[in-house]
């Protein structure tokens, strides 16, 4: 099932062989553990070295010594196999090691599974992978045989993933994403930071901090490519958990027991803004003097809206009624420019407008609205060097 996406990835079976040889130090011991011949193990290491373009072991009669490049790949290989090792419990299968789950050690099969969960149509998946539809069907049958469960149900003109398919999908997505990092790890070992960084950018970070950090990284590392993704917090958090994003930057939310790690970089409070020539711009105000104002507010049940409700309640006031609900900066900017509406927002979202005087911050204190702004990553993630560079750049761009 040849396709450009999967053929560029290291062979999972060969990565398993790398781990076995590293753990056992000799081909003979590794072969015995794997129930394979010594020649098969030897050929697997040779093929992986050819694919990666590096020497993974120094061959010696008394045993094989892993090289620096080999250690680099080994660390990532262990993490990849650990991602797959969680599946037996999820599938209700006996606790076995990933080394015995050979049906999972096929990147093209895993990619076909991921794409079918997304596209829900075998024909579309086959076209996207430049293979035949029977090849996709065969891959899914192998997955179902290995998991001993139905992963897809026929539905109309396509299929839909079962609950168990959706349950194992995140670990499989993370596995494939981890595979893409191996080439970048080796490049960094050779002194070259390259690869793609995928950032989830929440609204307040998009005007200055994230653009400034991206500019810094691509100037320092010309071979780094950056993809930004915008969406709701819930969607970006899900993508981060699945390994489809390397990090998310924006307002942090407390979530005990989450598999994500948060690092606060600064605190900010919400502010009330209006157009530059708004009649209320010149004098300080108390919150209770704004009862007759018309508002542009964040969407109901969002954390920012909840903070606004608490701020008004702390003054014994009913929460403001939204004339317009929006989190879109262009819409808020346009509304404020041509009306007397007031908006409650993060000042970081409108830094340029406030600096130019097109918008102004009213002299009103909003109590109980401070929130932490920072970076979210996956717990225990092995960040490729390009991602490390981006995290550092975000920290520097966040300095006052």
Quickly list its features.
single chain; 400 residues; alpha/beta; 5-stranded mixed β-sheet; 16 helices; 14 strands
What does this structure look like?
- With 400 residues, this protein is of the alpha/beta class.
- Helix content is 47%, strand content 17%.
- It is built from 16 helices and 14 strands.
- The chain has helices spanning 4-7, 12-24, 27-34, 38-52, 68-85, 87-91, 107-119, 122-129, 133-147, 163-189, 209-220, 233-242, 303-313, 329-338, 351-356, 385-397, and strands at 57-58, 65-66, 152-155, 158-161, 195-201, 224-229, 247-251, 260-268, 270-275, 295-297, 322-325, 342-346, 359-361, 371-378.
- A five-stranded mixed sheet has the order 6-5-7-14-8, with helices on both faces.
- Helix 7 crosses helix 8 and helix 7 crosses helix 10 (163-189).
- The longest helix has 27 residues, at 163-189.
């Amino acid at each position: 099932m040849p396709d450009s996406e999967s053929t560029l990835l290291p062979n999972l079976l060969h990565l398993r062989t790398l781990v076995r040889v590293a753990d056992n130090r000799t081909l003979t011991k590794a072969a015995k553990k794997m129930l394979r011949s010594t020649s098969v193990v030897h050929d697997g290491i040779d093929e992986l070295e050819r694919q990666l373009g590096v020497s993974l072991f120094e061959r010696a009669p008394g045993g094989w010594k892993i090289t620096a490049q080999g250690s680099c790949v080994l660390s990532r290989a262990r993490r990849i196999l650990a991602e797959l090792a969680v599946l037996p419990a999820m599938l209700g299968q006996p606790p076995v090691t990933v080394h015995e789950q050979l049906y999972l050690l096929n990147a093209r099969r895993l990619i076909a599974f991921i794409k079918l969960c997304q596209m829900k149509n075998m024909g579309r998946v086959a076209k996207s992978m430049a293979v035949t539809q029977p090849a996709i069907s065969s891959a899914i049958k192998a997955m179902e045989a290995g998991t001993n469960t139905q992963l897809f149900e026929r539905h109309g003109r396509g299929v839909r993933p079962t609950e168990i398919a959706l349950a194992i999908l995140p670990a499989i997505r993370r596995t494939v994403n981890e595979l893409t990092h191996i080439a970048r790890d080796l490049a960094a070992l050779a002194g070259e930071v390259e690869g793609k960084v995928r950032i989830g950018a929440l609204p307040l970070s998009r005007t200055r901090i994230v653009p400034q950090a991206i500019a810094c990284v691509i100037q320092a590392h010309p071979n780094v490519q950056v993809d930004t993704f915008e969406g709701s917090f819930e969607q970006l958090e899900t993508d981060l958990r699945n390994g489809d994003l390397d990090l998310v930057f924006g307002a942090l939310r407390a979530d005990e027991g989450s598999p994500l790690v948060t690092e606060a970089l600064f605190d900010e409070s919400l502010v009330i803004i209006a157009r530059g020539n708004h009649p209320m711009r010149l004098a300080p105000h108390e919150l209770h003097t704004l009862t007759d104002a018309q508002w542009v507010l964040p969407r109901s049940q969002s954390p920012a809206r909840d903070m606004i409700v608490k701020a008004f309640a702390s003054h014994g006031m009913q929460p403001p009624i939204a004339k317009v609900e929006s989190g879109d900066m262009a819409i808020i900017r346009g509304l404020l420019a041509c009306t007397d509406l007031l908006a409650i927002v993060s000042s970081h979202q409108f830094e340029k407008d406030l600096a130019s005087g097109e918008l102004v911050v009213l002299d009103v204190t909003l109590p109980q609205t401070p929130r932490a702004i920072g970076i979210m990553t996956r717990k225990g993630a092995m960040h490729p060097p390009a991602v490390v560079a981006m995290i550092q750049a975000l920290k520097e761009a966040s300095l006052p």
